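Field log, afternoon session.

UNIT: design team B
ACTIVITY: writing a sequence onto a fixed backbone
BACKBONE:
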């Protein structure tokens, strides 16, 4: 029933989280009935997205690449921010979780994104975690407190326990965000008040 290009774009939109077939069709129709400039700009931005935005080389957060630099390396705004407390490092599983904590506005330190959590079911073991990078960052930057903010799921708890064990010999304070974030819950969907309480109520491991 739909022209081929409309159906094709609709299918692509429906692959985004939270977008069903109906919403996807509405997006396409909206674009077709709006100023063509919107579609053009959207297309251009999407085309450049992966080249312009890279994981921060220091923490794994999203970072804008310097357009004037030949290097593909990028450092994020949080790592560049001199007002942050460099002694405090918050370890998260994914960039989404970093955003959830940033939204509380109460995190004074910087972050380290693991990229994955220990998961025997998915075959992700200790060797898959970027431990060398984490430990050298703690040493090089003189970090004195690490806050483990992995999610309160089975994998998140296993990862926190493993990190505690690995970081123990470094002689730094290691704490875990307090419960209050529901078990099995996703930090991404935790409201900022609950999240900032969980941070404030972190417990020494
Ligand atoms: Zn960074």
């Amino acid at each position: 029933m739909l022209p081929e290009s409309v159906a094709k774009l609709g299918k692509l939109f429906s692959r985004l989280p939270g977008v069903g077939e109906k919403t996807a069709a509405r997006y396409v129709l909206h674009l077709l009935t709006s100023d063509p400039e919107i579609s053009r700009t959207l297309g251009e931005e999407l085309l450049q997205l992966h080249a312009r935005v890279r994981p921060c080389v220091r923490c794994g957060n999203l970072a804008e690449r310097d357009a004037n630099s030949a290097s593909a390396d990028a450092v994020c705004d949080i790592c560049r921010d001199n007002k942050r407390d460099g002694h405090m490092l918050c370890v998260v599983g994914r960039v989404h979780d970093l955003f959830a904590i940033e939204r509380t506005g109460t995190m004074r330190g910087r972050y380290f994104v693991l990229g994955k959590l220990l998961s025997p079911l998915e075959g992700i073991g200790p060797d898959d975690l970027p431990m060398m990078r984490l430990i050298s960052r703690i040493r090089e930057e003189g970090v004195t407190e690490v806050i483990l903010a992995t999610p309160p799921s089975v994998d998140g708890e296993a990862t926190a326990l493993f990190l505690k064990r690995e970081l123990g010999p470094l002689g730094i304070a290691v704490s875990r965000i307090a419960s209050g974030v529901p078990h099995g819950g996703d930090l991404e969907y935790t409201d900022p008040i609950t999240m900032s309480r969980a941070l404030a109520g972190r417990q020494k491991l």
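LOG NOTE: The chain has two domains: 4-51, 82-204.
NEXT ACTIVITY: expression trials, pending approval
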